[in-house]
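Now for a typical sample entry:
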Amino acid sequence: MTQTCRMTPLRWLANALLLWVLLTPGARADATWIEPGADGAPVVHLYFFWSLACPHCLEARPFIEAIPAARPWVKLHSLELTRHPENVHHYVALADQVGQPAQYVPGLLFCGRVQTGWDDDATSGQALLAELDACRAAAGSSSALDIARALPTPAFSVPLLGDVSLDGTSLPLMTVLIAGLDAFNPCAFFVLLFLLSMMVHQKSRARMLAIGSVFVLTSGLMYFAFMAAWLNLFQLLGNLAWVTLAAGGLALVVGLINVKDFFVFGRGVSLSIPENRKPAIYQRARAILAAGSVPAMLAATVLLAVAVNFYELLCTAGFPMVYTRLLTLQDLGPAQHYLYLALYNAVYVIPLAVIVGVFAFTLGARKLSEREGRLLKLMSGLMMLQLGILLVLAPELLNRLGVAFALMAVAVGITWIAARLTRA
């Protein structure tokens, strides 16, 4: 495991005013990653941030500071943080530029990427040399950002979404996992199941498929628009540390409320459809069945889906907020941002579409029980709590495949145990 030293709270507190100023949008500075040397060959800049209080930094320092002797084309910037608060500024600004938090030392930045931690010279040291060599080799025909992506790490290509590194980035998997959990929205299930149950008595599979499909499609489009608004807000605010902390804090609050609902459902603060709003929803659903023609029924279905989605967002509003914040922390273009949102919403509507298909095939009536709603609340709350903790304490871990699987395993595992204990 790569060894890191977290910068101490006292050191951060001592530089709090400086960091507050530096974390404002106007404080970011562009880094120089590669430049032509005197002979025209590329020179690679290596930024090494270390602390006297970090034993792993002191272990790594002799090896790193000796690199320019063997590789003269490496321009080393060795920057100590404990005695030089201005270097904290530099670390934060450079890490912010590439969308990563400046939380750990030793920190190595080169070719538009960030590495933290150090095992020993034979592993971490040799890996660093190999990546510097690959960076320089690619520098002749690529930009610094392209070079960072071309470094020799195991990767596979996802159509439209780009390359995905197996030892780091887990955005496609995280997208599917978060959207999958978000899809089990008890509020959405409640309304759709009620609507389909009312339509069972008409015994028309075609009509049920048409109305159910319109409801699901409208719900997906509404959710996409809602997430796009979150995305634009976070892009406007930029990669500020407090924005990530605020997103993590809100995720913790939402997660705690949902977990609370499992134990004391319907009491106190709850992210559910209010009881006093349910009669209006029932009335809109009955209006669909009373419509005189299929076009009128479909139009009424759209109105119901739009109205209901404002309540549905209360049930799992934390997931879209957390996910769009994760999205803005990635180095992606505008088109990729919206493609990921489209992927998220495609996954989100799958359970709803399955419900419509099953009802149309069986013409059966089914309602969401209180126990099932509580279990869905528990699973989403546990996932939200984990995401909130990581956003607050270590957002960089959300880029790891193993973490994505672990989050899902914990949420599903605890919910499965709770389901077994509450079967009676």
Notes: The beta strands are 5-6, 34-36, 42-50, 74-80, 104-105, 107-110, 113-116, 155-158, 162-165. Confidence is low (pLDDT under 50) at residues 8-31, 141-169. The domain at 5-152 is CATH 3.40.30.10 (Glutaredoxin).
